[in-house]
Design goal:
The chain is an alpha/beta fold and 249 residues long. The protein is 37% helix and 17% strand. The chain has a 6-stranded parallel beta sheet with strand order 5-4-3-6-7-8. A two-stranded antiparallel sheet has the order 1-2.
């Protein structure tokens, strides 16, 4: 087996070895959080913002099923599950005005300017578009972090929330791989978090090549790429193969 990446002694019996690209990575479930990025009607439901704006959301439904599997495995292992929820106040003050690049680049804001009848309906707190999809409701003990920009580390309490719980590794699922997933993983990298993306539990905004590009970028520069099956198997095995090898010797 290729030597895994680890920030602690890799033969720690409490650790699990997660197969990943470009190499395996050791995680301690108690120091890892499963991240579910922006699984809202806006991004995953017909009639939501992405759908209205002309993006293909056909990959959202399969991603939801995979996220369910990953979340069940995480909860069974005692791993925190954290939902991100992207959007702004009903008056869009948090979105920024013309002096903010977000005002100019946000496709939700641009769509509402192009279609005034949608004003106040896209990604506004309290509205259907902002709500988490019914198929993925947070469970007791899960955490929901509202966020006003692509990265969940910007203007939120996420960093302090993670540090207070001793979290060092983040396993990402959700939408969109090339926007909010990658943005948050990058910021986490700069803050010394180990980031892993479960590629089959994510969906992108844009052409298919952008999914491949984001995963390549993450694998080569900012983190690791794994799958839901590998994640589930690593947790359910309930053993660190490196610790077992040491005991056998």
């Amino acid at each position: 087996m290729t030597k895994p990446i680890s920030y602690f002694p890799p033969d720690d019996p409490a650790a699990r070895c997660l197969p990943a690209r470009p190499e395996p990575i050791m995680i301690r479930p108690a120091e890892t959080a499963l991240i579910i990025v922006d699984m809202q009607n806006a991004y995953a439901s017909p009639g939501g913002y992405l759908d209205i704006a002309g993006f293909d959301i056909s990959g959202a439904a399969p991603a939801i099923e995979k996220i369910k599997e990953a979340a069940a495995a995480a909860r069974a292992a005692g791993m925190p599950v954290i939902f991100f929820q992207n959007g702004w106040d009903a008056d869009y003050v948090e979105a920024g005005g013309p002096g903010s690049p977000n005002w100019h680049k946000s496709n939700a804001l641009k769509t509402m300017r192009a279609k005034p009848e949608l004003q106040g309906k896209l990604l506004a707190k309290g509205g259907w578009d902002y709500e988490l999809v019914q198929a993925l409701p947070p469970q007791p003990g899960d955490i929901v972090v509202p966020k006003p920009r692509y990265s969940a580390f910007f203007n939120t309490n996420l960093d302090s929330l993670l540090r207070a719980r001793g979290i060092r590794s983040l396993v990402f699922t959700g939408i969109a791989t090339n926007v909010c997933v990658e943005s948050t993983l990058r910021d986490g990298f700069f803050l010394e978090y180990f980031g892993v993306v479960l590629h089959d539990a994510t969906h992108h905004a844009g052409p298919d090549f952008i999914q491949k590009a984001s995963l390549y970028n993450i694998e080569k520069f900012f983190g690791w790429v794994s799958s839901v099956e590998e994640f589930r198997t690593a947790l359910q095995a309930n053993i660190n193969p490196l610790a077992a090898t040491k005991e056998d010797n």
